[in-house]
Amino acid sequence: MSARHRVFVTRELPGDGFAALRDDPEFDLEVWPEDVPPSREALLQGVSGVDGLVCLITDTVDEVVLDAAGAQLRVVSQMAVGVDNVDVAACSKRGIPVGNTPGVLTETTADMAWALILASARRVVEAAEYVKDGEWKTWTPTQMAGIDVHGATLGVIGFGAIGQAIARRAQGFGMRVLCWNRTQRTAEAAAVGAEQRPFDEVLSRSDFVSVSVALTDDTRGLMDATAFEQMHPGSILINTARGPIVDEEALVDALKRGHLGGAGLDVTAVEPLSMDSPLLTMDNVVVLPHIGSASMATRSKMADIAVANLRAGLAGRPLPHSVAVAVGR
Ligand code: GLV
Questions:
Q1: Catalytic residue chosen out of the listed positions 11, 94, 169, 242
Q2: pTM of the model
Q3: CA atoms lying within 13 Å on the CB side of residue 238
């Protein structure tokens, strides 16, 4: 029998694929047992000498981690679609493929963008807290009155699979949908009743601007003070992508001045968000703990793909889903 594959997994994972991996005699698995991520030291120690690494968005996988793992490392399998925490270029240089888990989380994440659109527009979280705090004394004509979602204009920034799924849902609300994408997506836009327009125009014409671009050097800070100034007064920002796409200081400023009407954020620049953040003091801001893809079904499917990517990488086969092509192995 060939040597067992040594694998470090940075958290317990759901799903049948992971359960089967645990029982597979060909694998020697070390699973980080805590809910909080391994510290840098624990990660460096955990990866030492492994053939495969299964990681999450909370783990920084850079040159130092790759060095600590050693030259025998054959695959990095991330349980997420975004891989901005992984130095993909460094992995590619070493011929290590990087797996990710696209597709299965598209609809679940679009659902969450919509939860935030509705919650922000109709003050759902604020109103629920009002009831819990015993503030509900009567019914008044303007109590907890928000803004209408139906008939409004939705701007989708980034028109990949998730952006398209967010746009598709807007048809049911009778909304006009504008979208912006770095590359041409005219046909995809038309298919969901949206119109591809320049970035500035999407911002200035939309009542809700929903961000769904990947985090790259080009999109870091894409939603900055200038972008917020272009959004029209009272409009609402939704972010289910990555926190650093939004300049949080500029967002706080635009909200404090009353220029923006609110924000629904599933992600923040630093996660978890500091309890000192001014965002947590604002009634018109809903912050969630990065749970866009968090249905049990979807998280299990993501874990299954991460395991399939791991197995393929260790067997020297192309990964079912990867963001880098292995060279030189
Ligand atoms: C989660 O944020 C993911 O990228 O899958």
A1: 242
A2: 0.95
A3: 28
